[in-house]
Amino acid sequence: MEREERLWTIGEVVHHLQERFPDVTPSKLRYWEKAGLIRPRRTQGGHRLYCPMDVERLALILSLRARHRLPLPVVRALLDRLEEDPALNLGAVEALLQVLQESEGGKFAALTAEQAARRAGISMEQLRRMEALGLLPDGSSGEERRYNLEDVALMRVVRDLEAMGITCQNLAFYVKLVRAQVRHDISLYAPLVGDLDTDAERIGRFRELHHRIQTLIGLLYRKYVRRALMRRWLRRRARSA
Fold it and tell me: Per residue in 20-30, pLDDT tens?
């Protein structure tokens, strides 16, 4: 039996979103549609219909506008990036916001190594060290490596960790960890989308999987950190007794 996708009228969407964003109006949603931020379906009579992913996208737009005061071109660039990579989590989105706001028109520009290093506030030596350890993906063979604003955001995070005394060599562990997790997540993902027909459904299923796995990892991490710190504290206490 096929599942029927829940579709919302513009009035239902506005009523639903107004609980969190009181200033949302039908005219605002229509304006964003003209600006290319949202693409609702249409009935034969021309009435707009919004699927659950449309409602989620509108909530994200409202949040970005309310919390970060982002101009629409920057919001659109960020949404385009999320469409390219549905596994991109909101923590990474937050790291992107700073460099997005500094870019011209919010575009994900192709930057040279010197331009990227300058934006990130690092030296070329630091950039090359990050590349050598896999913290930045390799460029295409035979071509000059180009960097986008997500690379710049990553460079800044690594820069800040280095300022705390964490070396690139320490962080190389996380490159291996993430690569292994991606391979494992993809193997889990394949059987979950066999019964889905549309790209929107498949992307939605992957986002749900990614969100739940990241929640699991976060809870496990906190649990084992507490356990490890408690063991260390008990050992120190035993030695001092």
Answer: 889 899 999 99
Residue closest to 96 by CA, chosen among 72, 122, 115, 70: 70
In CATH terms, the fold of domain 1-69 is Multidrug-efflux Transporter Regulator; Chain: A; Domain 2 (1.10.1660)
Could you tell me the maximum CA-CA distance found in the chain, to the nearest angstrom?
81
- Cβ atoms of 192 and 204 within 8 Å: the answer is no
Dist. CA 38–CA 72, nearest whole Å: 12
Asked whether the CA dihedral 113, 114, 119, 122 is positive or negative, the reply is: positive
Q: How far apart are CA 97 and CA 93, in angstroms?
A: 6
Residues with Cβ within 8 Å of residue 53, at least 6 apart in sequence: 200, 203, 204
Residue 8: enclosing H or E segment and its boundaries? Answer: strand 8-9
Q: Where are the alpha helices (DSSP H) in the chain?
A: 10-17, 26-34, 52-68, 72-84, 90-102, 113-120, 124-132, 149-163, 168-192, 199-240
* Residues 52, 201 contacting (CB under 8 angstroms): no
pTM over 0.70: no
Give dist(CA 107, CA 98) in Å, integer: 13
pLDDT in tens, 72-116: 777 777 777 666 665 555 556 666 666 555 554 444 556 888 988
Per-residue DSSP letter, 87? T
